[in-house]
Specification:
Layout lengths: L5 E6 L6 E6 L2 E3 L7 H7 L1 E3 L6 E3 L2 E5 L2 E5 L1
Parallel strand pairs: 3-6
Antiparallel strand pairs: 1-2, 4-5, 6-7
């Protein structure tokens, strides 16, 4: 099962400012047909202050195989 989006607060490791974003803790590609761009958005955030991109740990299931991204 793909988890629903969760609202989070991110502290940028580059500029140290905080901002609001969202992520999905797990994505099951056997059930949901998300493209790579959407998967990247689910597992990362871009700081609106400095543009630094951070990646979260996201569990992805594809063809029955579990992958930990991030």
């Amino acid at each position: 099962m793909t988890m629903p989006p969760e609202d989070i607060t991110v502290k940028c490791p580059e500029c140290h400012k905080t901002y609001e974003d969202w992520y999905r803790g797990s994505i099951n590609l056997d059930l949901d047909d998300f493209d790579e761009e959407y998967i990247d958005k689910c597992s990362s955030a871009v700081c609106p202050h400095c543009g630094h991109k951070v990646y979260f740990n996201t569990l992805t299931v594809k063809k029955g195989v579990f992958y930990l991204q991030g």
